[in-house]
Amino acid sequence: ILVGFHEGGKLHYAGRVGTGFSGKGANELKAKLDALTAKTSPFSTAVPKGKGLVWVKPELVGEVEFRSWTSDRIIRHASFQGLREDKPAEEVVQEKPEASTGKPSTGKSTAKLWPDENISKQGLLDHYAQVWPRMEQFVVNRPLSLVRAPDGVGGQRFFQKHASAGMSDKIARMKDPTDGEEILYIRDFDGVAALVQYGVVEIHIWGCTIDEIEKPDQIIFDLDPDEGVDVKAVREAALDIRGKLDELSLPNFVKTSGGKGFHVMVPLRPASDWEEVKTFAHDFARALEQGAPDRYTATLSKKARTGKIFVDYLRNGRGSTTVAPYSSRAKKGATVSMPVTWPEIEAGLAPNAFPIGDKTTLKQLAKADPWSDFFKQGKALRRG
User: Fold this and answer.
1) What is the pLDDT of residue 264?
2) What pTM was estimated for this model as a whole?
3) Helix (H) or strand (E) holding 24
């Protein structure tokens, strides 16, 4: 396949990817590409000719691992890792390589991850130590994806799913039983400490455990408002979703995103497979859109989101992730994705209300744990 990235309103050619495809995955990818065929090239400049080239509309986002960029910005030794349904195509830009000294480096615990907020690795570690009794059940023995900011959140950030040089053995590895891809997970607090020391500023989780990797134990609805949508409307959307889940007799919980939205979560007894769970989430999001098309959209593209709240159901696919409860966010303010109660949402809580170490956050953590029985409330998902 030919790949590219956006820059200056144009799609720049970035090379070819010819490895990393499984038989089943290649067939599924081809079927999706066949539905997007176009008459002309989408790239801003001519690309090297090749036999049997078929042009398509640039609407699919793929995750690709590669060795390096050439001087003319072509990727070398590229391997296809899978499609990314959680990222709009128009947001794909050129990634800058992480500077390397050739030596593994975890950095000092005094290094500032959030320089403007004066939050160091030690400050983040102190936060995780405080929330660990609550956080443990949501992150231990779960497949992880990591957002790293080795030079702080103002520098380059990296979305990482596989091990790399210098990574502690406290961050465990296993093979995905389906495709053999490497999966990262942690077993205990030492694993979280290793993540912090490695410059991880966001911990993202799959909606399953490593022991039940084909059976999700949660559903997430991530409310992502367009620029300019009032936070009051986002709170009302969360409450609207709660009401509809209540009608379905599905237990539901809510947490702040640490950014602009809220995450509404449904605990599940691990019984349904990924396709069943994602289909339910998609149908639920589309029903919201159909009921209030002026407020909601279930479509990822920026154009569809204009003035609306995107009800992101895509986090419920196999391999997709969402930020973990109590994880820090790589955002201005050094905020946390905080589990809260529905009455707190009704009272006007902001989605970025809880900065690391702030008195507001400490006061929140002094209250009873609102998610202590999250998984105990889980029900099997039943359709129809």
Assistant:
1) 98
2) 0.79
3) helix 23-34
